[in-house]
Amino acid sequence: MEYRERVLRMYEMMYRIRKYEEKINSLFLQGILPGTIHQSLGQEACAVGMLFDLRQDDYVVSTHRPAGHALAKGVSLHSMMAEMFGKSTGCCRGKGGSMHVGDIKVGMPPAIAIVGGGLPIAVGIGLACKMQGSDRVVVCFFGDGASNEGAFHEALNGAAIWNLPVIFACENNLYAASTRVNKVMKPEHIAERASAYGIPGRIVDGMDVLRVNEGARMAIERARSGGGPTLLELKTYRFCGHSRTDSCRYRDKQEEEHWLARDPLKTLRNHILDQKLAEENRLKEIEEQVLEQIEESVRYALSSPDPAPEEALQHVFYGE
Description:
Oligomer: single chain
Distance between the termini: 52 Å
Strand content: 5-15%
CATH topology: Rossmann fold
């Protein structure tokens, strides 16, 4: 795929994630959707940059903020929207909701909402890939808060000593819910922690999809060729609250303005126009197509059947 095509595809994917999440938020505010949401507005470059060059048979392990990761990995937009409405046509048959979307057919197990809970699972998947003799890789997303969990250290140590094909992608958006990262850890950068396990650690501008993709491609190539794991710290920022009830009063307004000015979607759009990779009308065409796809997904979800009551007992593990 030539550079121009890659960049336009990245823009389309990022725009779809942004507008999907904005639509979901609007539906929640209208009282149309149940439950809660944990959105990733502002972090689209992390999802698209990290996953753009994965194969369908590669894996991604996500968090309680999974929508961008799911759409970037190839989970169907229609099935995502149906899942939000709790429909039987949802990607998890209406049983997962916003924090547990996924589709194993495209290499995404349902997202894991427990903070740090996906890290050891990603290591397990990576171990399986290695034992099977395949060259598949695993991208494991987690946040800055998860880097202080015991599971983080155990996972990195396990992946390192077994030389597993796992790329640990820390989306450092500065806040674990409302707790600022510098209040709960001494190192300035989470990437520094990689040295304790003898693996590469790299800091990446998480607001620039091209820089994220550059780091991802290096880490993916290393993992796929048997070089082992890498820790990438993606410096990013969520433009919304931790959840839909969070007004972000704990954040400094100047800090917010600084990061909002670095909107990854606008940055890529400006790059495309400045480098004459596409004209304004082409970008508007892409945007209009995406908006229509989202409206179609809402119509699909609304017309889909609710799960039958007996489905509550299906796909459930019963232990003795």
